[in-house]
Write a sequence for this structure.
């Protein structure tokens, strides 16, 4: 047996939601490197910037870049999803991989968290429902569209992205330190994020058992924090709670996504692959 053939996605197609984000770009490059064509779905797309960054970071050729198709779509809007999938129907004839990556996660140090990371007692209903609409409802709507193509193509792999905060409660002390001195309310990792990411786990189990007979494998990839020029105090606090004593480099998630997307994980379904530097072991 040639084990390397297990990692090939040559002539196959993959769909990635939230595909232009921090990790979306990693997943896009990873699957392109295996020979796949990639359909990038995102609410906001700066095609020129995204391609420029891919070329700069991964030295991709024009030939490989041409294997990316961009679809601007709000996955919480069923009408937009229906219209988008009608347009790309012909591009899905070889669909084998779906990565439900889109999320409302904010980057600590790069986003203004003062008004989005509210204390629980000050949150409004919409504050937590916004997380559910993307991580759960949006993922389910896209999955509904992709499964008929996966069935027709003899199966495939669906990867749902979760977080350590889907299996553990956040340590709010890490986030409280981010509150500006003159800002009265404390910054708090929102409950909506934790609930939606834990919901992803059972969404995976349901879909895995439901569509196993169609040879569609469904797994969760649970990730730890990614370093993106975060404040030093935050990085130190986070790292101290992690056995490997650091945050992840975004490209360290390329290996796990490749494993789950390909036949290298052919006997794995309904599972949760945790890659968090050991965070969840303490």
């Amino acid at each position: 047996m040639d084990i390397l053939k297990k990692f090939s996605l040559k002539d196959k197609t993959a769909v990635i939601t939230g595909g232009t984000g921090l990790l979306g770009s990693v997943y896009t490059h990873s699957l392109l490197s295996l020979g796949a064509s990639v359909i990038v779905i995102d609410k906001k797309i700066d095609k020129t910037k995204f391609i420029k960054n891919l070329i700069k970071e991964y030295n991709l050729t024009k030939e490989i870049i041409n294997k990316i198709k961009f679809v601007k779509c709000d996955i919480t809007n069923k009408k937009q999803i229906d219209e988008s999938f009608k347009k790309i129907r012909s591009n899905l004839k070889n669909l084998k991989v779906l990565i439900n990556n889109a999320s409302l996660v904010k980057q600590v140090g790069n986003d203004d968290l003062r008004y989005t990371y509210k204390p629980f007692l000050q949150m409004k209903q919409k504050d937590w429902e916004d997380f559910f609409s993307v991580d759960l409802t949006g993922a389910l709507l896209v999955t509904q569209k992709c499964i008929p193509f996966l069935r027709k193509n003899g199966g495939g792999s669906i990867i749902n992205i979760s977080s350590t905060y889907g299996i553990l409660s956040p340590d709010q002390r890490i986030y409280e330190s981010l509150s500006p001195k003159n800002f009265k309310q404390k910054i708090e990792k929102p409950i909506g994020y934790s609930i939606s990411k834990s919901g992803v786990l059972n969404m995976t189990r349901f879909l895995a058992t439901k569509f196993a007979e169609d040879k569609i494998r469904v797994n969760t990839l649970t990730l730890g924090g990614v370093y993106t020029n975060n404040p030093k105090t935050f990085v130190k606090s986070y790292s101290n709670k992690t056995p490997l004593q650091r945050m992840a480099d975004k490209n360290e998630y390329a290996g796990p996504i490749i494993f789950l997307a390909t036949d290298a994980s052919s006997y794995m379904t309904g599972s949760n692959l945790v890659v968090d530097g050991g965070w969840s072991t303490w």
